[in-house]
Specification:
3 helices; 144 residues; SRPBCC domain-containing protein; Alpha-D-Glucose-1,6-Bisphosphate, Chain A, domain 4; single chain; alpha+beta
Length: 144
């Protein structure tokens, strides 16, 4: 049985509203995802597109926007493909005050429901495990 989700969290030395801006504004999104370009229509059903020279175009669809505490999107596994059931995972960011900073948590789920054999489901999950550590570190560096 494939583990369905990846959970990562960190404390960012900035207020919740500032972290929200870094998570949801295209200029910042491109930086923390290491993309050459990012576009985001920040509303449920809105398009979220990231472009990398070496990976191609990643397509996602905004799922939920509850400023400043929750942002989620569904993204496709393969470059250039629209997200759809069996070919997407759900990424959810939650933000909460923690002392003088913000507790930032990301959960990516849906690996066990991908239209892939179990070994391929696990492969997709494993390649993102360290990726989310890197992304959260990149988000946090926007405040140092």
């Amino acid at each position: 049985m494939v583990e369905d989700s990846i959970v990562r969290e960190t404390v960012v030395a900035a207020p919740v509203q500032r972290v929200w801006e870094v998570l949801t504004q295209a200029d910042y999104v491109g930086r923390w995802f290491g993309a050459d370009k990012a576009e985001i229509d920040l509303r449920p059903g809105g398009s979220f597109v990231m472009t990398w020279a070496e990976h191609g175009v990643g397509l996602a669809r905004v799922e939920r926007v509850e400023e400043p505490n929750l942002f989620s999107f569904r993204w496709a596994l393969e470059p250039g493909v629209e997200p759809k059931p069996g070919e997407e995972t759900l990424v959810e960011f939650t933000l909460a005050e923690k002392g003088d900073g913000t507790l930032l948590k990301v959960v990516e789920s849906g690996f066990s429901t991908l239209d892939r054999a179990a070994d391929k489901q696990e492969w997709h999950r494993e390649r993102n495990v360290d990726g989310w550590r890197q992304v959260l570190e990149a988000v946090a560096t926007n405040f140092s």
